[in-house]
Amino acid sequence: MPKQSYTAAEAARVLGVSLDTLRRWDRAGRIRVERDSANRRVVPGSEVERLRGGEGSEVLSARNRFRGVVRSIEVDGLLAKVEIDVTEPARVVAIITRESAEELALEPGVSAAGVVKATSVMVER
Q: Three-state SS for 72?
């Protein structure tokens, strides 16, 4: 069962971000926080769960996930080009290994997510 609330440090740790990033998110209105009697940030458990996303997000610390549906997959030798139509008005294209594409059982019409971290785009299901 998820915790009811987290201190700012606990929430940052669970979300895989720095405390400074969590504070910036608070100032920018990207995360809803409450204040305790000493005016310290307290993050509701529901906010932490919202920002963590769905299943599988515990494995990767990347925060930029674009859920969508596989549009096409082109396998050439050891590589596979995967196009995902994301729910936002955009498309994510990733070059991954053929083995990864087969392991994820990717094919047009299945649900997948493009995970963006630094300069890499990964695919997960």
A: strand
Q: Residue 68 is encoded by which pair of tokens?
A: 């969508």
pTM, two decimals, is: 0.44
Does a structural domain hold residue 96?
A: yes
| Rg value, the chain, Cα | 18
- Among residues 62, 53, 52, 54, which one has the least CA distance to residue 120? 62
Domain range for 108 is 64-124
Run means of pLDDT, 10 residues per run, the chain, 125 residues = 83 84 88 92 89 57 70 90 77 85 87 76 74
> E strands along the chain, which residues?
5-7, 34-35, 41-44, 64-76, 79-86, 91-97, 111-117, 120-124
User: Does residue 59 lie in a domain region?
Assistant: no
CATH number, domain with residue 39: 1.10.1660.10
